[in-house]
Write a structure and sequence with these properties.
This protein is an alpha/beta fold. The chain contains four helices and six strands. The radius of gyration is 14 Å and the shape is globular.
Length: 138
């Protein structure tokens, strides 16, 4: 995913060491980065804005509001699961999502929960620019 690499590049530019970036066919934590000063791991759960499969009828087409809601819901679930699994070690968790009106509105709808759980959000636009909503401390 080109936009997933944009998040990894953004984190690297901020000084994080990037330990892992998954491809679209791999399963697991999409990005694992380590903060240089604290040694704290950042685990990023990512969802794209279109199908990653070239053979799919949805390939290259943006998701509608229902599909975006499903993606944000699944991403939020996995972020909470990552917190459950990795909070004893002090890991931080973030979501990476497409920067569009649907995804922004959905994140706004759960922004209080994201703050309470200290889950950050990275939005990636079509030009691969990354905007961070840092609900968790660096």
């Amino acid at each position: 995913m080109i936009w997933l690499q944009a998040v990894a590049d953004h984190l690297a530019a901020e000084g994080h060491r990037i330990d892992k970036v998954l491809s679209t066919v791999e399963r697991g934590v999409d990005i694992v980065a380590v903060h240089p000063a604290t040694g704290r791991r950042l685990l990023v759960e990512a969802k794209g804005g279109t199908s990653s499969k070239a053979a799919s009828a949805r390939f290259g087409k943006p998701f509608d509001s229902k599909q975006a809601k499903s993606h944000v819901s699944v991403a939020f679930y996995y972020a909470a699961k990552l917190l459950q699994q990795h909070s004893p070690e002090g890991a931080q968790v973030a979501l990476a999502l497409p920067d569009d009106a649907n995804h922004r509105a959905l994140v706004e709808d759960i922004s209080s929960a994201l703050r309470v759980l200290r889950i950050s959000v990275f939005f990636v636009d079509a030009a691969r620019r990354v905007t961070a909503l840092p609900f968790a401390p660096g």
